Amino acid sequence: MSDVLVEVNRVSKRFCRNLKQSLWYGLQDIAGALCGLASGGPDLRAGEFWAVNNVSFELRRGECFGLIGANGAGKSTLLKMLNGLIKPDAGSIRIRGRVGALIELGAGFHPLLSGRENIYVNAAILGMSKRETDRRLDEIIAFADIGDAIDAPVKSYSSGMRVRLGFAVAAHLEPDILLIDEVLAVGDLAFRMKCYRVIAELRRAGTALILVSHSEQLVKATCDSGVVLCAGRSIFVGEISAALAQYRKANIPQSGNVGSTASFPFKRRREAFDGPRIVDVQWRDPAGHPLASLISGKPASLAVTLQAPIRCKDLALFVGIRSVDSPELMSAAFLTKDSLGELVLDSLTTEVQLIWDACCLTHGTYDLKLRLEHPPFEVLDILDWGEAQFDVSPDPIAASQVGLVHQPHHWEILSLNATDKLEFMTGHAVAAHRE
Q: Are strands 293-295 and 389-393 parallel, antiparallel or unpaired?
């Protein structure tokens, strides 16, 4: 039996932006198919574009493959072709084994049926027989963990409860190939961790995974290899670290390269209020030179330039940082009267520096939020999320580190006490006490 479960060979898919044209092209393609002709031909027709264009890769049993790219790159379209929801216009997809898809979980639930009844409906759609569903019903209900709501109409469920029920059904399908499309971004932390454990168990059992996620940390920790998509085309296929490097290179502006003397991207979406304001934001190295990006474990400072048309005192400055992959606040710093002393602004520019002895962020792209305020409630100016993003490059010594936080560290190997020795027997180290 071949270990190759998925073969994608030069697959392409086109769409039309105009609805009327799309319907007309659809009729032409159906007529052509009835006559044995290829749909659409090799060239685009008026109004069409390639959503996926000439993509190829293979996936073997037990491997995890990442589909990487910006929004609109073609990831979801490719995933739908793999799931059989849409047909490619060119190329071929060969699937061996049962496919399970965690895409838009709960989207097919009937709102008037109970959760228990929807388990049978959803399981049948996913390819499970009634006998299989009967055998696994208690496990599915226990995994969903929604209590008495299992017998209530699904229309009364929250979005998180729908995802719980949908994942519980799909996870017990025992697929050979599992397609996952950003569904685990919904739900509480405890449920997400339970989902990750199930995915790990499926992989150990030989299930192959195809993952779509904008979380670089999740992709690196989970996937062995991946394909980088840009405007529907494959620009790289290979080992996951190299794939993520290609993705960053294609999507992060050149001003974000390490060693550049340009400031990192900073663009105000609106004019500040006619009052105290944030004039500029800049990362700097210990020598005071501007940095376009930071390096994990290396020192840096955030220089914030402030100004006010008239003298203002008793001000405070908030600095927040989060990953572009997550809405959760990762770090926050407050400059207040208690932390440093009174912050006073006047017509002269004032520079405030937030100094890091070491950047404790792992590599990735991050977002800044700054808020200048007069405590306790008056906000004077805001630099909002999305207006100043920056890149963190990995420490070359700890380039394989994953997670949200970079903890500078080193390793030491110490010998055992003089009274102990190691005996290696059949590949296992056994500590024996010396009498």
A: parallel
Q: Which helix (H) or strand (E) holds 338?
A: none
- How many angstroms separate the CA atoms of 381 and 363, rounded? 29
- CA nearest 181: which of 169, 201, 167? 167
Q: For 277-398, which CATH class?
A: mainly beta
Amino acid in position 318: F
CATH architecture observed for domain 4-251: 3-Layer(aba) Sandwich (3.40)
Determine the distance from the C-alpha atom of residue 299 to the mean position of all C-alpha atoms in its chain, rounded to a whole number.
Answer: 27
Beta partners for residue 227, in sequence order: 67, 237
| pLDDT category of residue 257 using cuts at 50, 70 and 90 | very low
Burial of 293 (0-12, 13-18, 19+ CB in 10 A): buried
Q: DSSP code of 410?
A: -
What are the start and end residues of each CATH 3.40.50.300 domain in the chain?
A: 4-251
Q: Which two tokens stand for residue 323?
A: 């990953």
Residue ranges of the chain that CATH labels 2.70.50.60 = 277-398
In the block, residue with structure tokens 């100094």: 355
Which of 407, 411, 433, 412 has its CA nearest to residue 422? 433
Beta-carbon count within 10 A of 62 CB: 16
Which burial class, exposed, middle or buried, applies to 21 when counting CB atoms under 10 A from its CB (0-12, 13-18, 19+)? middle
Read out DSSP for 303-334?
EEEEE-SS-EEEEEEEEEEEETT-SS--EEEE
CA 44 to CA 48: how far, in whole Å?
6
Which pLDDT tens digit goes with each residue over 278-297?
A: 888 889 989 888 888 888 88
Q: 3-state class of 189 per DSSP?
A: helix
Paired tokens of 407: 């903890």
Tens digit of each residue's pLDDT (9 = 90 or more) over 367-379: 888 888 877 667 8
